[in-house]
Structure formats: C-alpha cells, structure tokens
C-alpha cells in the first residue's frame, strides 16, 4: 500500500481533528470546507494533470489557488461570494499549516494574502403576506404527510430560522406547553438562541407532534422533522418539500412567486415582515441569529416603503407655497410682454 502524501495527511488532520476539536467548527462548515478541497483536487487533476495520489503540499501554492478561484468562476459559474468562501477555506488551512509545516510558512502566508473580491449587494427577495398565506394553504392537512409539511413550513416562516437549524430541531427544543411559547435553535458558531412562537404556529405543531408521539419521553431526542425512514430531514429534503408547494402555489397565482424561492427566501421574508411591522433592527438581529446588526441592516436598505416613509417624515418644506391660481395673470407687465410675441 502506497504511503499517503503530506497533503493527504494534513488535510485529513485539518478536517477531522483541528476544525472540530481545536476550533469547535460546526459540521456544516467542515462539510463545506471538505467540498472546497474536493473541487481543488478535481481542478489539479483535470487542469494541472496532477493525479490525486501524487498531490502534495508543494502543489498548495498561491498560483494554484488563484488558478482554482478563476476556474470555479469561469467553468462552474460561481459568483464572487462563492469564490470568497472557497478562499476562506484555503486561508484557514494555510493558517493551520503555519504551525504544522513551518518550513513552508512563506508559501502559506502568500496564500493568506490573496484578497477577496468585492461582491455587489443584491436586493433581498421576499414573499408578501398574501403569498405566505397561499403557500401555507397548499399542504393537504387531511394526510399525515401534509400535516407534517404544514408544521414544517409554518415553523420556517414564523421563526426565520436557517434550514439547517430547522433540520437539527428535536422535540426538546420546543417550549409549547404554556405561554410564552418558544423554540431554541443552535445556529452558526454553535450559538444558541430562543425564538418566540405565535399561538397559531403552536397549534399546528401540537397536532403534528401528538399524532407522531413526539411528546413521549423516549422521543424527546428524536428529530422533530423526519422522513419515511425516521431519519431527520436534510436540507435537500426540506428544499424538495418547499419546491413542491411553491410550484403548486405558483400555478394559483404566478405573480406572488416570481423568480426562485428558496428556504432562505422564507428567512428573508420573516425579517422583512418584522421590519415593516416596526420591529427594531437589534431585535430582528437576535431573532435571526446574526452576530452583528450590520448584517441585519441589509433588510433596512432593501425596504423601499420604509425609505419613502422615512423621507416623508423628515421632509421639510423648503420651497414657498404656490397658489393654485395663475400668478402670471396678476402680472400685467408680463402678460403684455407675452402678448407682444404674437
């Protein structure tokens, strides 16, 4: 059996030991970093003719990283945001290598010096209140599957939680025995937060949980939302469910569902509805689980109605009032001058 290369050894330690145990990085981040290096291996194989079993740390250079970043933009149609995220994975690995492979510290620091590209801020896409009502009217609540889907979509719309946060929920995450109702989610960086729930949302959850015996002690650690194999729903599974009902709702009213509606669209929708209801940004930040209110400000910049109302509230009349009658009629000199041009 051939000995593994230094690249293979270090990338394995980086993903299985350093990130989870020394940096306490979430499983989602580790999966994403793993995907980044999988693509890098493919790039080196297909574009640089370096076989996987021959790939070593001598190939992990600034030039090859820059080549890869250009490749994912030109060949994989990735945007600058995705490109920057892939670069973050490489920089994290390079930072790790500074202490594990000290002899190449100049190379690692060169990789860490690669600048990120500017990303244009896209307008936030969200659904109207009527669109959300139409979407939630699609599941067939006469079936067990339909009641599960209604509970799932309602919870996503009511909390604005990330799709992975919803997937990771267990019955113990919920406090719906008595008011105030809430759900506890674990977000990015393993930061937990409590999100209030509305009474209407709690009713659909109770119905779903009762018929699936999710209040019983032995089910408290069971996934809240699961598939036919009793495995917790994945992000792909939730996306499939959402897409199914968006397609049905779009047939009823295409104007409500223009463009692509993703799970994150429901998160944006919750944020925008809170903002339009007058909830301050700091509270929206806490509900969404943003680490900084600066991230939340994107919603304020996207709400044209609030912009207009703010301008109207701040408006000062600077110009003089203009009477409705024709002022030129009072100015006989002007009238005579105009008449002279005939």
What would your notes on this structure say?
This protein has 342 residues and is mainly alpha-helical. The protein has 2 domains: 6-113, Orthogonal Bundle (DNA polymerase, domain 1), CATH 1.10.150; 129-307, hpI Integrase, Chain A (Orthogonal Bundle), CATH 1.10.443. The chain has 15 helices and 3 strands. It has helices at residues 6-22, 27-47, 62-74, 80-100, 105-112, 129-136, 144-159, 163-167, 199-211, 235-252, 263-276, 281-288, 293-302, 304-314, 332-339, and strands at residues 174-175, 182-186, 192-196. Strands 1-2-3 form a 3-stranded antiparallel sheet, with no helix packed on it. Strand 1 and strand 2 form a beta hairpin. The longest helix has 21 residues, at 27-47. The chain is elongated. It starts with 5 loop residues before the first helix and ends with a helix. The model is unreliable at 310-319 (pLDDT under 50). GO terms for molecular function: DNA binding. InterPro entries: CB, DNA_brk_join_enz, Integrase-like_cat_sf, Integrase_catalytic, Integrase_recombinase_N, Integrase_SAM-like_N, Tyrosine_recombinase_XerCD. This is Tyr recombinase domain-containing protein.
Layout: helices, strands, pairs:
Blueprint: H1 6-22, H2 27-47, H3 62-74, H4 80-100, H5 105-112, H6 129-136, H7 144-159, H8 163-167, E1 174-175, E2 182-186, E3 192-196, H9 199-211, H10 235-252, H11 263-276, H12 281-288, H13 293-302, H14 304-314, H15 332-339
Antiparallel strand pairs: 1-2, 2-3
Helix pairs in contact: 1-4, 3-4, 4-5, 6-10, 7-9, 7-11, 12-13
